[in-house]
TrEMBL record:
Gene3D superfamilies found in the cross-reference section: P-loop containing nucleotide triphosphate hydrolases
Protein name stated in the entry: Sulfotransferase
Native source organism of the sequence: Streptomyces lycii
Pfam families: Sulfotransfer_3
InterPro entries with a match to the protein in the record: P-loop_NTPase, Stf3_sulfotransferase
PANTHER family: OMEGA-HYDROXY-BETA-DIHYDROMENAQUINONE-9 SULFOTRANSFERASE STF3, PAPS-DEPENDENT SULFOTRANSFERASE STF3
Length: 380
């Protein structure tokens, strides 16, 4: 079963004054879905509805910014971005930082329904339940996912959900087999998609303004930002970065395994050696760029390098370091909140993630050789 060509054309051309925003990106993504993704017949409609929903969110964001100048003027402060390869502890860090009284890590339901949440404050419980329904359905389709990457509507989640609304996100090549789209994406300038990301974040953070008009500083987490740091910095010149580092051997294998699980939610076609080759290429290529020019890519913005083993080995000390970097108090209230989260969400609480590099046609020696400059530059 494939997505109908007339549906693709209609969505690309929709809009009262011409092509819909990001119509070229949508064309490449939808065409790849149609010809390459091998979606199950019953999953075609849900995937297509998600595409239409992304277009609606962009339109709703533009309408809100036009009618609500207070949102358009919203000061985001100095946003914090957690970057690094996938599988480096960013979910743990994002959850912990979200417990600080001066910070906010956007929750999954907010990322999915921020425009509806602003328009209808009385529907927040309904919107959270709807987001949890999405999560529950994903778990039914991909039962291994909780052990690999636990998500919940009421927990912080990745802001790839904002960028994906512009059809410029690597999460799309993670969820679906769309190689032609991925090749196209990595040749693009993402300055405009990131500008739209910022607009959506302003809408979301308007939900957290206090009576005096202030709000916490947003903490954003998405490993895919690391491939497009120069474009991100154009949209967020005041950004600060926490860069997580982990042994690339563990990163490549775990990322490939996550991709296998996610694609299984919508397709039975999962060629493991193809998945392994894709993420080996993406990760080793980025490792060389980071080794050569990470500081240039972020334009000299403040950055704290944090090894994965330090984060998981002593989370409280890692939080102390991060608070000093962000110039916020490492308060007793925050220390207790960190302890509470660690007690409530121990490692492997939802099962153990089991995989080997060999499953994906890869070897530790090959990854080690290809990431030598990154290892040396960041002491991994």
């Amino acid at each position: 079963m494939t997505i109908a060509a007339d549906s693709v054309s209609t969505a690309v051309r929709s809009g009262p004054t011409g092509p819909a925003p990001f119509s070229e990106a949508l064309h490449h993504f939808a065409t790849a879905l149609r010809y390459e993704a091998h979606l199950r017949p019953e999953d075609v409609d849900p995937v297509w509805r998600s595409i239409l929903r992304s277009q609606e969110v962009l339109a709703d964001t533009a309408e809100l910014l036009g009618s609500r100048p207070d949102i358009a003027r919203l000061d985001l402060g100095r946003p914090v971005f957690v970057i690094g390869f996938l599988r480096t502890g960013s979910t743990l860090l994002h959850n912990l930082l979200g417990r600080h009284e001066a910070l906010h890590s956007p929750l999954l339901w907010e990322l999915a329904h921020h425009t509806d949440a602003v328009r209808s404050p009385d529907r927040h419980d309904e919107l959270r339940d709807r987001a949890q329904g999405y999560v529950d359905d994903y778990y039914r389709k991909a039962p291994e996912l909780p052990a690999v990457h636990f998500i919940d509507a009421g927990r912080p989640d990745e802001c790839h959900r904002l960028l994906a609304n512009t059809f410029h996100s690597m999460v799309l090549e993670m969820r679906y087999r769309v190689p032609s789209y991925g090749d196209w994406l990595h040749r693009q300038d993402l300055a405009e998609p990131y500008r739209r990301h910022r607009e959506q974040l302003q809408v979301l953070m308007s939900l957290h303004r206090d009576a005096d008009g202030g709000q916490p500083v947003p903490v954003l987490k998405c490993p895919f930002h690391t491939w497009f740091l120069d474009s991100l910095v154009q949209a967020y010149p005041e950004a600060r970065f926490i860069h997580l580092h982990r042994d690339p051997v563990e990163v490549v294998g775990s990322t490939a395994s996550l991709c296998r699980v996610l694609r299984g939610a919508r397709s039975d076609h999962r060629e493991l050696t193809e998945i392994g080759a894709q993420w080996f290429t993406r990760i080793t290529g980025l490792s060389r760029r980071l080794a050569e020019s990470r500081d240039d890519l972020i334009g000299g913005r403040p950055v704290l390098d944090l090894p994965y083993r330090q984060l998981v080995g002593d989370p409280q000390e890692a939080m102390r370091r991060i608070c000093a970097f962000l110039e916020i108090p490492y308060s007793e209230r925050f220390r207790a909140a960190v302890s509470d989260h660690l007690s409530a969400a121990p490692a492997h609480a939802h099962g153990k993630h089991v995989y080997t590099l060999g499953d994906f046609g890869l070897s530790a020696d090959a990854v080690t050789r290809a990431t030598e400059s990154y290892r040396k530059r960041f002491g991994v």
